[in-house]
Amino acid sequence: MAAKHNTADLDRTLGILMARVGITVPDDRRAGVLAGFQELTGMAALMRQPRDAAAEPAAMFDLAAVLREH
Q1: Which residues contact 42 (CB under 8 A, 6 or more apart)?
Q2: Disulfide: which of 6, 14, 18, 46 matches 23 by Cβ 3.0-4.6 Å?
Q3: Does residue 2 sit in helix, strand or coil?
Q4: Residues 11/39, Cβ–Cβ less than 8 Å
Q5: Tens digits of per-residue pLDDT, 14-69?
Q6: What is the dihedral of CA 40, 34, 16, 26, to 10 degrees?
Q7: pTM, whole model, 2 decimals?
Q8: 18 touches 25 (CB < 8 A)
Q9: Rounded distance, CA 60 to CA 3, Å?
Q10: How far is CA 59 from the centre of its chain?
């Protein structure tokens, strides 16, 4: 399970990252951007966990469907 971060830490990290790349987030959009950043942080943590080949559906395909003529 992904680690939970408190909002203040995420807001501070987001501010650092945005400043590093020269992006200014308008105050009226900050909450939405922060919510998106929180979701992406959680997804990134999940993607960094070990998993087996069965957890990679993009690497699985049906050879008969691929070779089928239309």
Answers
A1: 2
A2: 18
A3: coil
A4: no
A5: 999 999 999 999 999 999 999 999 999 989 988 888 877 777 777 666 777 778 76
A6: 130
A7: 0.62
A8: yes
A9: 29
A10: 20
